[in-house]
Structures are given as C-alpha cells and as structure tokens.
Amino acid sequence: MKRIIFILTFFVCSFPMLAQDLDQYKYVIVPEEFEFSKEKNQFQLNALTKFLFEKYGFETLMKNEEKPADLQENYCLGLNAKVKDNSGLFVTKLVVQLEDCRGNIVYETQEGRSREKDYKTAHHEALRNAFSDIEELNYSFNPGEVSAAAPSSDKQPQAAEKAEVAQSEPETRAPEATEDVETPATAPTEQAEPAEVVVENPMIDNESAKELEFEKDGTSYFLEKSDSGYSFFQENSEEPFAVLAKSGGENSFLYKSLTRQGVAYFGEDGNLVVEYLNEENKSVKLVYKASASQ
Hints:
- This protein has 294 residues and is α+β, with helices and mostly antiparallel strands.
- 34% of the residues lie in helices and 29% in strands.
- It is built from eight helices and 14 strands.
- Helix 3 (45-55) runs parallel beside helix 5 and helix 7 packs across helix 8 (188-200).
- Keywords: Signal.
- Residues 1-19 form the signal peptide.
C-alpha cells in the first residue's frame, strides 16, 4: 500500500504546472536569442515564439523591450521563455519552458518534433507542435493570485533580483560591441555577408527608403516606412491592410492585419515573406516579390 501511495505521489509531483498555476503570471519575456542559436532570432524562431504565446493569450515582451511599470516593480509577474533543443540526426525536437524570476522551471511542454529536412521549416514545425500543449492550457491572467507568487514580505529578494536584471543588461551589450569589433579581424569572410545583404535587400538597413514596392498575383503592393516598422498597402488604397511591427532583429517583424497574425521577414532576394496559421491551424507562406525597379 505504501509503495502505491509513493508511486502516485511521484507521478503527481512530476506533472508540469497546471494552467491555473500559470494564471498568476502576467507576462512572458522572450529573449532575442535562444541558448542553442548561433545568432539573434535565428530561423525567425524568437519572433515565432512571441507570436504563438500572444496567440494563446499571454501578454508577451521581447527581452530588450521597455518593461511595463508593474513588471519593473515586481519582476516575478513575468516568466522567461526558453526553448530547449533536443534534436537528433534526423529529427528536430524542441521543448518550450517557462522559468520564473527565481530561475525555477515552472512549466515545460512535451517535445515538438519534425522530420523536415530544411532547418527553418523543421524548427518552425517542431515549435508549433510543442505549443499545442500551451494551447490546451486555456491561459487567462488572474490578478487575484499574483500575491502568492511575490508576497510583500519578500521585498528585499525582489529588489536584489531587479538589481541583477538592471546590471545584466549593460553586461549583455558589452560582448555584442566586442564581437562587432573582433569580427573584421578574426573572420574576414563574415564581413562580406552583411554587405551582400545590403545589396540584395536594401530595404532592411536603408533609412532613406520611404516606400518599397512588391507584386503578387498581378497586384501591386507597397510598404511605407514608419517608426514602428512598415505599413502595408495595396495599390490605389489610402489605408493599409496590414502592419509590420519590428520584433527582435532588424529583419524580423510581427505581421498583423484584420484577419491574420503571423511573422514577416525579407528574403535575401528582397522578397517579402509572410507566414501565418490558417483556420485549420496549418502554416501558410505568402511571398510578395520585390519590384525590379527598386
């Protein structure tokens, strides 16, 4: 009898945090780069992570974004999003984790898997599959439970945590600056890559470009630059039908229209690529070809 009770207790304690426990957290914070990535927002995976958390009801921020006042006051209102790569030789495997302000993993999904050969396609499919667990949580923020996560008697640890966060931000910037300086000296071949991107895709870094023209299925479209990203227009239209908001890297955007939400980015050939989930929860990719006149 004791053995049965022990086994049941073990399995109950092994289950990930339930949905009602996650409801006490208000924010999910997504990093610009995951630990297994080789660059910021590799495969647009960080932008996709932010999009999927927002799709399933979470208020989501990129780590480099300005934090809301209540999150600055109580960092324990937020959870840090992490993606763990368990990939093998033929199968891409990703696990989504949520870490609280004390560094504890409070939720972990099952492995999302993909056998696609293309790296980007495989990572996107595996991540979406992992998020099926998060979809089933039916998350909804419950402010009545916030005090349980961060009691007022714990002010000093919170202050220390906020101080650590404040100190960590400049420390993370310093290595980036160092890498920028070292790159030309230590890896001359990498210096040519940004130059190629600028030539092939001038809309990414060209601050003087106000409008960018595209074509799809015989219809002309154009992007108009704004402070937050771009407004997307169809020809002869005075109002944009979608917006592209900056997200993470310079070539990564959140795509929002009246009927669709997804991610967008510029391909190396200058084309605008939009990816979103349709009503059947299947991935759809739209490619708007850059105008030859640009």
